[in-house]
Fold these 2 entries.
Entry 1:
Amino acid sequence: MGQTSESSGSSNSSLAAAALRADSRIVEARRLIAEAVAEHSRGIQKVQAADPDRSDSYEKLLSRLADTRGGPPFWPYLSAGLGQGPYVELADGSIKLDFIGGIGVHGAGHSHPAMIDAALDAALEDTVMQGNLQQHPPSIEMSERLIQLACVGGAALDHCLLSTSGAMANENALKIALHHKFPADRIIAFDNAFAGRSLAMAALTDRPTYRMGLPLALNVDYLPFRDPANPERSTRWAVDELHRLLNRHPGRYAGFWAEPIAGEGGYYPGSHEFFKALCEPLREAGVPIIFDEVQSFSRTSKPYAFQHYGLDEFADIVTVGKITQVCATLYGEAFKPKGPILSQTFTGSSSSIATGLKMLDLLDSGECFGSRGQNVTRHEYFAEQLASLSRKYPKLVSGPFGEGMMIAFTPGDGSVDQAKRLMMTMYEVGLLGFVCGANPTRIRFLPPPATTTSEHIDDAVALLETSLLQFAKQID
Ligand SMILES: Cc1ncc(COP(=O)(O)O)c(C=O)c1O
């Protein structure tokens, strides 16, 4: 990729930056780096226990981390800086099978050669970070690619703003909607929503502990989400609640904000019928519809989950993040702000933009999408194995739940304590998954869509079974 003379303009004369990238020393250096990475990561292909000789130094690192961040991390993960596919080496010498990937960030696994190459290309740039006053051609390309993918089914998403976090992408989305509907100042979201950790997103996120001691920066009303056990009844309930809200606060709603698949809330899929039943009255009431795809992007049969559910006509504003490396807010021409309400010193690192572009290529070449694409067929394969664990250990596993490459199960009695206990047992055994939801609390997996194989899934299921047998003894 990089800033070639083609991507930077139409002149025939070569740019110095393009000449640098074409320099045989650079080409050879990149080749040698790729060769060395391949050689050194070759052994990272199955789970391995920590090296006891590293135990003290690892503990010291963890305690330094706890000191600097003001508390211990959720789990003792410190990467060594190398991996292969879903396997990652930690600084204690252990190798884990990473089926959570920093919550969905590692879409091609660890140390993917194409991602490293893209990052090296970005490292040659004049600046580490791109931003409002310093944009480069790959930023344009990233925005154009996200727009083009979003519009395939007819969604009217003309513009794209890059940003450095999912929370900031959502901030921009809400600013666009609030500005468009001023003076309307209320937002509709779902029970159990998670939108990020900024002040406004803490108000939107439906977790009282996450806004503990914080002022409410937004007025939010909540609807019940789709219940897979009772799809029709839960849809009727949500629609009735929506009408109640629209009647209670006429003209006061500036936006409906929704994750098409509830992520942190517990991996509850939406559906075409559910969202259509809500989006039609919202349209009629003139309430902008925002889909948060920060976790769901690239994990279903289509790049965007709103496309997977056939909701293209309703997508007014859409946010993405995580797997795209650089986050973004897409919106239609009708929502273009009339004043300078959107800007940032940093839109993303040069490296996150280059690797984000490469990730889109890898998702495409990995044949992730389509009604029988890898996301769908791998889900079926994984789900069948989880279902078989559930049949074998009905007291330990219920499920599976989720959609595509967002897959979860409920361990034991569904309590937070038991879910955390199993998650940590899995961690010790070598399988990384992470909790989500409350009542019940589940364990979710976000396998890398671009590189997961059935062998990786077999490995994960074997490690899960070992963990379940240990977990059974702990809760006995
Ligand atoms: C659906 C959703 N939206 C927004 C966010 C916030 O993203 P970030 O942590 O990059 O700010 C997350 C993060 O988990 C998310 O799952």
Entry 2:
Amino acid sequence: MRHSDTIAAVSTPPGIGGISVIRISGPECSKILEKIFKSRTPVKEVKSHHIYYGTIYNDNLLIDEVLVSIFKKPNSFTGEDVIEISCHGGTFVTQSVLNTILKNGARHAEKGEFTKRAFLNGKMDLTEAEAVIDLIHASTKHSLEAATYQLEGKLYNSINQILEEITSVRSEIELDIDFSDQGLEHKKYNDYLSILKKIKSKIERLTSTAHEGLILRDGYRVVIAGPPNAGKSSVFNKIIENERAIVTDVPGTTRDYIEEDIALEGYLVKLFDTAGLRERADKVERFGIEKSYKILKNANLILWVEDCSVSRETTIPNFEGIHVISVLNKSDLIKKAEEINKDSIFVSAKTGDGINKLKKIIVENIDVNKDDVAIGLITNSRQLGAAEKSLIAIKQAIETTQEKKGLEFIAFDLHEASEYLEEIIGKISNEDIINSIFNRFCVGK
Ligand SMILES: Nc1nc2c(ncn2[C@@H]2O[C@H](COP(=O)(O)OP(=O)(O)OP(=O)(O)O)[C@@H](O)[C@H]2O)c(=O)[nH]1
Ligand SMILES: [Mg+2]
């Protein structure tokens, strides 16, 4: 999977801007620059980590005035020779500079190819590469924070530490294999057992962070549900501060669910408005209700909205393990709302009363531990899948030790546990996994 050619792409977003940056990486950087760039300093004499002013020529045709930044290997983003050309930000100018580079020996980069090269050249591990894309897509303070920690290598460090512990106990066990015909002391097995249990709890901690990692990266899923006409869509609109959902006095107005991303105190919240749940419904509404149930199953939090002017008794269905907050809407229609039902939050989508309090309660329910974020979180299902497999292998190692089945077998289980952890950081990986990760990037990154 090593690459030896030179790649180039526009690294700034498409469209017109003040400047565009074109990135080139690979062994031909200097040769290409010599052919297309004229400046006071001859290209042969340019120094790494310096910026040069000059002009780009396509044959003898002047294309643009530019600034060229030089990064010589290995001290660059990709670990190869890298040049970044800042040209004027017009679409045509940028394309012309890029075409000139391509004509003179570079190949157009594929999606994420610069970051992929950084990974292949040992500039970053796989979790850090994934953090680069999360960083680009981060839309809130906390998702950015999580991606930054990951980019700094927090997850990598946590995993590496566990790997070291596994390797250390494994080499001890392998040494003991040579003496095992003399019978291993009972005490030694117990020592191993306690070490393995400690490792197991560290991997468990790691897998338990996935829940938080996914919330930070993909958002905390809050679903508004309840009987028809309770004012669910009105509450939804009020929370997102936009008349997004259709509101009418006809029960069964919302058919298909609606989803909107909002930022609440730095957290990304995915808010869903769903069709009112009721038994008697026409065909279209029934489809909507089925979809409501599907969305509800994957919720992190449910806001069960009812109309307090109709009924003062809440009738919340059981949503197996998902936390439900009872919201009584239309508080403007009744007097002294709070005194009636202390377990519910009273709001009025009409006057906006109680909506800020509701938002606060949503944030309070986001169960993300700041310490976990700083230690390093699992942030995607690829990482989680591998961590879970590693956990199974460690549990197997513990069982093998308890049953004194033989040291070779413990060593084998430990080897497997290591392999899965190594898969997370990309120490061992197959081409499919790597390609699927970098395909999520945009061209130029
Ligand atoms: N007085 C008062 N009326 C409200 C309030 N919130 C909603 N309504 C009215 O209640 C009716 C139903 O509102 P919707 O938001 O469409 O209710 P829904 O729960 O989404 O209804 P379905 O989509 O049909 O399930 C509309 O006529 C709204 O104007 C409120 O806080 N106070
Ligand atoms: Mg509705």
